[in-house]
Amino acid sequence: MNNFEFYSPARLVFGKGSEDNIGNLLKPYAKKILLHYGGGSIKKSGLYDRVKASLEAAGVAYCELGGVVPNPRLSLAHEGIELCRKENVELILAVGGGSVIDSAKAIAMGVYYDGDVWDMYETGKAIEKALPVAVVLTIPAAGSEASGDTVITNEEKALKYGYGSPKLRPLLSVMDPELFFTLPKNQVANGITDMMSHVFERYFTNTTEVELTDGLCETVLRTIMHNAPRVVENAEDYAAWCEIGFAGTVAHNGLVGCGRAQDWGCHNMEHELSAIYDIAHGAGLAVLTPAWMEYVWKDNVAMFVQFAVKVMGVDGSYREPELIVKEGIRRLRAFFASIGQPATLREMGIGEDRLEEMARKATHECFGQEHPIGGLKKLYWQDVLAIYKLAL
Amino acid sequence: MNNFEFYSPARLVFGKGSEDNIGNLLKPYAKKILLHYGGGSIKKSGLYDRVKASLEAAGVAYCELGGVVPNPRLSLAHEGIELCRKENVELILAVGGGSVIDSAKAIAMGVYYDGDVWDMYETGKAIEKALPVAVVLTIPAAGSEASGDTVITNEEKALKYGYGSPKLRPLLSVMDPELFFTLPKNQVANGITDMMSHVFERYFTNTTEVELTDGLCETVLRTIMHNAPRVVENAEDYAAWCEIGFAGTVAHNGLVGCGRAQDWGCHNMEHELSAIYDIAHGAGLAVLTPAWMEYVWKDNVAMFVQFAVKVMGVDGSYREPELIVKEGIRRLRAFFASIGQPATLREMGIGEDRLEEMARKATHECFGQEHPIGGLKKLYWQDVLAIYKLAL
Questions:
Q1: Which of B15, B218, B220 is facing A3, going by the closest CB pair?
Q2: What is the pLDDT of residues B204-253, one digit of tens each?
Q3: Per the CB < 8 Å rule, is A11 touching B2?
Q4: Which residues of A touch B227 (CB under 8 A)?
């Protein structure tokens, strides 16, 4: 086990009806907040009105900024930063999924920064201060409700970069699994895929003697995969949504990655896809992850055997590890197909033409100095290109 | 799954050598601290000198209060409260195991309370403020390094009561598993038993549809039981200590109890034993837990079958659940014996004479109004007495 720090201070308020208390929950922290959200879905569902009613009842003043889109845009964050400064906002309440929360975090750190907040995403420079962010979660997926991470798309540069800081961990996050009942099926599938990938990125490691976190990763993955078909079949299965929702938070609050080297290769490769093609992050991951596994498994056969046996339920008592590993990958593909995910890039309308460009971008090769991505196997642009091609 | 709140803000700084940075870690929070510890072991090991050197190098002033004993005493907490007030202490650094941390928490809340801090333990009244507590952990066991709980013994009244508040969660805890190398074997066994019990008290529940936390509990228990023999056989097995130490924190930071009714019957019954007989908490739990299981399993057969199969590795494909459950309990007893725990109260010098008195105290029956303890099965004083007798 490697030395580590674990710090996950976001307070999780979980369960039926908990969003109706959001005003009282925020009152100790702010007199004026920015209510930040996406499009029409929270208005149609009535959530928007209930959140506003709760804020008003608690005497918490607010201004509003809607319009966050999937793969949230830098330009809207700029707008939010201006608004917060003008209105003396003390806290940002993100009502939505990962895109809204990530956008809120960009605004939260931008308010105290003199330059363009994109600098943080591009250079990774540390921040000293950010507005507190609170969350009412409507899509279990990104884990952004517990993490200090944010991903933003710079539309002008067609770049999608992530940034992380402990200062960006939400103050508190409210999760009512009943809010997930109305999610479209593709968002359900994408959320499930994304949270599984958050575990995969930590699970697949060359760090040995990490038995506890291995086991935590495996439990989270099994729980997600066991409950996914239940919510796909019955969108109002509250108990199954509780498992999926809570698992999505545990997958990304840092716990399951403690003491181990992490990978993040698939996330990096996927960000290039959705920056250029504007596809859903989860769909991109569903296609890339099995391709990545096929490309890298020989670099750590034991890890992939363990995955096949402990997570995918493959019988481990065969003498050919390759058969065990391949059956594990086959079952993962079958699982993704069963929740409605595409199996290839072509199904998402992505052809060969820009693969090399994306591979060079993913590793920053085209920006002068190449930074290989991944952990279990270091991936240079040629490796990334090979994986994209496997995923075609 | 029940509605819940999860809030675990304690920052865990984990790994070899991390205690040598304690001065820098505390510097942002306090100019003057109370260094609180037990007896001679930290002096003998050199830890005391290293912590002082780190504080001095960072320019953090300190005063000292040693002398914490297992089953920490109210009288020492009173002394600490006076000292902190006199010296304008801003933070308490507990260097030790659960007893030292629990004592530090008593002092931390007592400083801001006008009456006797015992009031909190006796009446459960809420606190508004406490000094921050930081920890350098020397015994993985109590989980107090991440929890808001404290247990104190009132020597005059021969009562051992617990108290909990989110305000008592440590600010940060440093855990270097190398510090565990010099623990005596009985402390190792007691620590392992205590952390397992923290999971048991949450795991054995009548709340259904809590698959994720069931799985997390099972993983933590399996990890502890897999690594326990390694540290018992080789006190310097760093990798195994990492698993045990980290598991001890996860067992008690609140995560594995989210969304489920909890039990705490065995802890309550054990507190009576160690208040009167001053036995080790872990040893008491090792004796009481299997007896409790025998007494209550029929109230939730499915839960005990799951425990036997998922945790104790019993083959679950037999038609008589009773056989599966009993084999699970038998294996748990065998495990406790293998790490050197006693199997009966008599082995610890406890006879029949005060069992009824303890049973009436455990349920507060002797104080006028009985509060049954336990969750999976409510235990009245007669039940507690029956369990004590089973454990004889």
A1: B15
A2: 999 999 999 999 999 999 999 999 999 999 999 999 999 999 999 999 99
A3: no
A4: 211
β-partners of residue A62 are A33
Mean pLDDT of A118-133: 96
Q: What is the pLDDT of residue B304?
A: 98
Q: Nearest by CB to B13, from A1, A5, A259: name it.
A: A5
* pLDDT tens-digit series, residues A18-71: 999 999 999 999 999 999 999 889 999 999 999 999 999 999 999 999 999 988
Are the Cβ atoms of B14 and A258 closer than 8 angstroms?
Answer: yes
Residues of B in contact with A16 (CB under 8 A): 3
Q: How far apart are CA A312 and CA A333, in angstroms?
A: 11
Q: The dihedral of CA B350, B353, B355, B361: what is its sign? A: negative
Who among A6, A14, A216 is closest to B219 (CB)? A216
Looking at residue B92, its amino acid is I
Q: Which of B171, B212, B242 to mutate to test the interface with A (most CBs of A within 10 A)?
A: B212
- Asked whether this complex has an ipTM greater than 0.90, the answer is yes
Whether B256 and B8 have beta carbons less than 8 Å apart is answered as: no
User: Predicted confidence band at A160 (pLDDT cuts at 50, 70, 90)?
Assistant: confident
- Phi then psi dihedrals of residue A252, to 5 deg: -135, 15
Q: Is B163 helix (H, G, I), strand (E, B) or coil?
A: strand
Tens-digit pLDDT profile for residues A229-280: 999 999 999 999 999 999 999 999 999 999 999 999 999 999 999 888 989 9
Residues of A in Cβ contact (< 8 Å) with B239: 1, 209
CA distance B242 to A45: 47
Q: Reply yes or no on whether the pLDDT at B367 is more than 90.
A: no
Write the secondary structure of B289-345 as one string of H (helix), E (strand) and C (coil).
Answer: HHHHHHHHHHHHHHHHHHHHHHHCCCCCCCCCHHHHHHHHHHHHHHHHHHCCCCCCC
B44-67 pLDDT per residue, tens: 999 999 999 999 999 999 999 999
Q: Which residues of chain B does A239 touch, with a Cβ-Cβ cutoff of 8 Å? A: 1, 209
Burial of A368 per CB tally in 10 Å (0-12, 13-18, 19+): exposed
pLDDT at A45: 93
Q: How far apart are CA B196 and CA B2, in angstroms?
A: 23
Residue A19, min C-alpha distance to chain B (Å): 12
User: Per the CB < 8 Å rule, is B15 touching A4?
Assistant: yes
Complete edge-to-edge strand list for the sheet that includes strand B172-175: A61-65, A32-37, A91-96, A133-137, A172-175, A4-14, B4-14, B172-175, B133-137, B91-96, B32-37, B61-65
**Tokens 């004592």 correspond to what residue?**
B103
> Using the beta-carbon criterion (under 8 Å), do A243 and B1 form an inter-chain contact?
yes
pTM value is 0.95
Inter-chain residue contact A219 with B218, CB threshold 8 Å:
yes
Entry field: residues in chain B:
392
d(CA A239, CA B1): 7
Question: Confidence band (pLDDT; 50, 70, 90) for A158?
Answer: confident
